[in-house]
Amino acid sequence: MRAPGFWHAPPGLAARALAPLGALYAAATRRRLAAAEGMDPGVPVICVGNINAGGTGKTPTVIALMQRLADRGVTAHVLSRGHGGTAEGPLRVDERTHDAAEVGDEPLLMSAFGPVWVGRDRVATARAAVAAGAQALLLDDGFQNPALRKTLSIVVVDAVAGFGNGFCIPAGPLREPVRAGMARADLLLSVGPPRAQAAFREAWGDAVTVPHLTGVLEPLQTGMDWEGLRCLAFAGIGHPEKFFATLRGLGADLVQTVALSDHQPLTAAILARLERDAAAAGAQIVTTEKDAVRLPQDWRRRVLSLPVRMRFGAPEVLDAELDRALG
């Protein structure tokens, strides 16, 4: 069950040598999940997580669910650990006063769409959100965290990367074996274009034992004409090349691309280099919506951002699961 790609190649010698450590990692995850019964916060808990480590499309999925629940009249609050943030929490994110260094870039981005909380203690954060009026909780990540009893667990996977070589960290990209993850999941969302979806089904279809939903990230129509625009594009996300490919698909002329690590701080040195290179090339600096929230305020008018939104291939599959979760 393998398909071509970075993680998809059959396990090599290094992966096989590291396999015993991967088995230990998987066993530790299994023990943690079995150690405690999750707390019931009194409202539905919808978890958006993954089996792979790294970016799979969780943040745009959470944003889409926030909007979908709001359309149903359900006030959903997002719970996040706040990657890279300094806040211990529970802290409700305020996009007007907080910055990414305090709360993390993803919570800051999501806070533009609805209430978002950050906190290391999932139970305390859930209680704070419910006390503030949450009618449902959207758990951003936390699929392998047993602190809260989950009503609906959605596993998100990148259709291009799939589940890699099928090995657990450090031998492969997985937090736990696919079979174990599928046993706890209620829905699988694979994110990618049709060709990648077909390859994912061929490679991993036999392992998918829950309803399978597909999704694709599409540029938000803002009226911006990208055709022929000379761009210096940078991205500090899980897979920067996807962002660059999206810009090219819109007709932008990418004269330079800069791939940063996920959540990488945008230091004065990095920004000065980007500005210098863009000026030399006569190009406009462009970045992702998530990277844009990490920019200093005086930079936000100088950099264009390209927002993307999740479109579900068969939304009725998701709606059925949401109906079940909401009762």
Please give a structural write-up:
- The longest helix is centred in the first third of the chain and has 23 residues, at 13-35.
- The protein has a nine-stranded mixed β-sheet, sandwiched between helices.
- The chain is of the alpha/beta class and 327 residues long.
- The protein is 35% helix and 20% strand.
- It has two domains: 13-74 and 135-218 and 311-326, Rossmann fold (3-Layer(aba) Sandwich), CATH 3.40.50; 230-306.
- Mean pLDDT is 90; it is low at 1-8.
- β11, α10 and β12 form a beta-alpha-beta unit.
- The protein contains eleven helices and 13 strands.
- It starts with 12 loop residues before the first helix and ends with a helix.
Number of domains: 2
Beta strand count = 13
What Rg do the Cα atoms give? 20 Å
Helical amount: 25-40%
Q: Which whole number gives the mean pLDDT?
A: 90
Shape: globular
Assigned CATH architecture of the largest domain: 3-Layer(aba) Sandwich
The ordered string of helix (H) and strand (E) elements is HEHEEHHEHEEHEHEEHEHEHEEH
With strands numbered from the N-terminus, the spatial order across the biggest sheet is: 3-4-2-5-1-6-7-8-13
Approximate strand percentage: 15-25%
Helical run tally: 11
CATH level 1 class label of the largest domain = Alpha Beta
Any idea of the CATH topology of the largest domain?
Rossmann fold
**Poorly predicted ranges (pLDDT <50, ≥5 residues)?**
1-8
Task: Output the structural class.
Answer: alpha/beta
The profile of the biggest β sheet is: 9 strands, mixed
Task: Calculate the terminal CA-CA distance, rounded to whole Å.
Answer: 37 Å
